[in-house]
Each structure stands twice: as structure tokens, then as C-alpha cells.
Amino acid sequence: MKIIDHVFVVPKVVANPYIIVDPDGLTIIDTGIPRSDNKILAYIASLGKSARDVKRILLTHSDLDHVGGLAALQKATGARSYASQVEADAIALGRPSRQISSSPSLRSFLFGLLRPFFKATPVKVDEILTNGQVLPVLGGLHVVETPGHTPGHISLFAPSVGVLFCGDSMVTDENGIRVSRSGVTWDAAEAKESVKKQSALGARIVCSGHGPVIMDAVGKFPL
Predict the structure, then answer these.
(1) In the CATH hierarchy, which top-level class contains the domain 2-208?
(2) How sure is the predictor about 115, in pLDDT bands with cuts at 50, 70 and 90?
(3) Among 1, 29, 55, 80, which residue's beta carbon has the most beta carbons within 10 A?
(4) How far apart (Å, rounded) are the C-alpha atoms in residues 107 and 20?
(5) Residue 137 phi/psi, 5° resolution?
(6) Where is 163: in which H helix or E strand?
(7) Is the Cβ–Cβ distance between 125 and 111 less than 8 Å?
(8) Strand 176-179 to 170-173 pairing
(9) Given this model, what pLDDT does residue 182 score?
């Protein structure tokens, strides 16, 4: 589904993967659960592009539903992968970057039951992203540290078009934008601070890992 020119979300994949089309090639943000690679590659083909057009795969964090398709996509595309150091270390081990110590939500409970059937293939991330770094994507894609959901979670902001890719640092639904769900959050206080940081960016469009794209996000951040 087209969000704005050059920015798309792949439908019917658990944890929304996003595609950015630039003159020098494609960037994928997050890769869905294992076996999502076929849907992502099919969507890329529907844009008139091929697997070899993919140059970068950016990971907001190491949870299975965001990195499950990484190994297969790297094999198919030859693209380089990017993540924060904390999340890259976890991706290399094929596991999440944190454990949840609080009482689990129904969502996290069900996800835990399914985990043995959907294991992430360990992948060595090619490049480490740091806070404030600007990638040559979508007119300048800024890396923003947004810990809370996980310790090394990052978001990605393109000020030239006002688009924020927030991963699971926030979730969206028919009522707007909410902070990371408590049942799967590593540190609730950090998560709230990350929302404050993101609300100050001036994003007009919020693209989350779970839920619909919020096209008129100004004033809708949970503070």
C-alpha cells in the first residue's frame, strides 16, 4: 500500500515491513515473522522492482516478528543489514534483546507459545547504527534512539517528508497512537521518554510496527 510517493507498507505481514524507493535502490524497514520474505519480495515485484534493487535492510529491534525474514531476504537480495549495537548482538544470536519480567499479556503469551515454531535464523548485522546518524534514504533518514520496548530499539525519521518509522516504540490503532504495550515492554519509564522524544520531532505521518499508518499525527502522540 502506498503511503506517500516512494514509501510503501507491505500488507498482510505480521509486524509491518516498509519499503522506501530511492534512485539508488530500495530500503526495507523490518522484515516480519519467518517466511515473510516471499510476501515482501512479491510486493517489491509489484512495484516493478527486483530483489537485487534492495540495498539496505534496517531493523528497529530484534524481536522475532521484526527480524524473522532477515536471513532469507539478505540471501535473496544481497542487501546490507543495519541495527543498533544491542539489537545487532541479539540478532546474531537469533533471540530477542531482553526478557519480559512483568506479567505477560495475552499477546506475549501467545507469541511465546508460537516461538518454538517460528525461530529467527541468527544473522550477523553488517553495520551498527547510532543515535543521530543520517542515512542516505528518503532525503536523509535520521536514526533516533527509542529504548523502552527493547533496550536498543531505534526509530527512523525522515524530516524532509515528515515520516516517522517507530517500530514497536509506539503502536497505532483506530484511536491513534499509544506507547509500547506493557506486556512486551522492557522498561515502561524508558518507553514513555521515547514517546516524548518522538513527539518533539514534528512528524506528520507515523508508521508503526503494529497497526495502521497515522497520516495526520500532529497532536496525537500520547504524552
Answers:
(1) alpha beta
(2) low
(3) 29
(4) 29
(5) -135, 135
(6) strand 163-167
(7) no
(8) antiparallel
(9) 85
Predicted confidence (pLDDT) per residue in 143-200, tens digit: 999 999 999 999 999 999 999 999 999 999 988 999 998 889 999 999 999 999 999 9
Nearest to 31 by CA among 89, 91, 93, 90: 91
pLDDT above 80 (res 79) = yes
Cell numbers that stand for 146 in this block: 527509542
pLDDT at 114 over 80: no
Give backbone dihedrals phi and psi of 43, rounded to 5 degrees, phi first. Answer: -70, -40
Please list the residues that pair with 21 across neighbouring strands.
26
Give yes or no for a contact between 87 and 59, defined as CB atoms under 8 angstroms apart. yes
Other beta carbons within 10 angstroms of residue 156's beta carbon come to 27
Question: Rounded to a whole number, what is the largest CA-CA distance in the chain?
Answer: 47
| Domain limits, the chain | 2-208
Half-sphere exposure of 99 (CA within 13 A, CB side): 1
Q: Are 50 and 8 in contact (CB under 8 A)?
A: no
Residue range 82-108: mean pLDDT, rounded: 82
3 state DSSP class of 210: coil
User: How far is Cα 218 from Cα 203, in angstroms, rounded to an integer?
Assistant: 7
pTM: 0.93
